[in-house]
């Protein structure tokens, strides 16, 4: 997969697209057996050396009263992805993100990372929100 168009073709064949813009897609991924789902956003970014990177991210909880130090400690334990803070409608939210360079992308790895982030993001969301399925 060398272009966002190839990624988009794969995504549309395998996932339910809930939002689309040029170089950005959002998919709804079913997780678990309780009818939960997690939205995963995919966007093309460029590194400072002009290499294209695919960013995957999902919102997990409003930042609210969560301690940034605890989030950073969780980052240390994550083997795939990292926690970050981004805004959603002007409110800070904790996000789970992962970046993949295009040269490492293939259908199998892309599917793995989408599904892994959806499961992990939903698990973190479930823990932080007391079982709510916000995203």
What features would you highlight for this structure?
single chain; 135 residues; alpha+beta; Yope Regulator, Chain: A
Give a brief description:
The chain is an alpha+beta fold.
List the helices and strands and how they pair.
Elements: H1 4-14, E1 16-21, E2 24-31, E3 36-46, E4 52-62, H2 68-77, E5 82-88, E6 91-101, H3 107-129
Antiparallel strand pairs: 1-2, 2-3, 3-4, 4-6, 5-6
Could you characterize what this model shows?
There is one protein chain. With 135 residues, this protein is α+β, with helices and mostly antiparallel strands. The chain has a single domain (4-129), classed as Yope Regulator, Chain: A. It has helices spanning 4-14, 68-77, 107-129, and strands at residues 16-21, 24-31, 36-46, 52-62, 82-88, 91-101. The protein has a six-stranded antiparallel β-sheet. A hairpin with a 4-residue loop joins strand 2 (24-31) and strand 3 (36-46). The radius of gyration is 15 Å and the shape is globular. The two termini are 28 Å apart. The model has no long low-confidence stretch (mean pLDDT 88).
**CATH fold descriptor:** Yope Regulator, Chain: A
Could you give a short account of the major beta sheet? 6 strands, antiparallel
Query: Which whole number gives the mean pLDDT?
Result: 88
Give the proportion of residues in helices: 25-40%
Strand content: 35-45%
Which structural class matches the secondary elements? alpha+beta
- Broad shape: globular
Main β-sheet, spatial strand arrangement = 1-2-3-4-6-5
Domain unit count? 1
How many DSSP-defined strands?
6
State the order of secondary-structure elements, H for helix, E for strand: HEEEEHEEH
The CATH architecture term is 2-Layer Sandwich
| Name of the top-level CATH class | Alpha Beta
Q: Which parts are unreliable, with pLDDT below 50 for 5 consecutive residues or more?
A: none
Q: Please report the distance between the alpha carbons of the first and last residues.
A: 28 Å
Q: What's the gyration radius in Å?
A: 15 Å
What is the number of helical segments per DSSP (H or I, 4+ residues)? 3
């Amino acid at each position: 997969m060398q272009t966002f168009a190839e990624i988009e073709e794969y995504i549309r064949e395998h996932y339910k697209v809930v939002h689309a813009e040029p170089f950005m897609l959002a998919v709804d991924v079913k997780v678990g057996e309780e009818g939960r789902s997690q939205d995963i956003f995919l966007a093309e970014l460029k590194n400072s050396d002009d290499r294209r990177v695919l960013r995957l991210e999902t919102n997990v909880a409003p930042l609210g009263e969560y301690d940034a130090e605890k989030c950073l400690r969780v980052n240390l334990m994550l083997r795939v992805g990292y926690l970050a803070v981004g805004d959603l409608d002007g409110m800070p939210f904790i996000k789970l993100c992962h970046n993949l360079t295009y040269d490492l992308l293939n259908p199998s790895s892309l599917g793995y990372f989408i599904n892994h982030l959806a499961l992990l993001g939903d698990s973190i969301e479930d823990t932080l929100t007391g079982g709510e399925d916000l995203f």
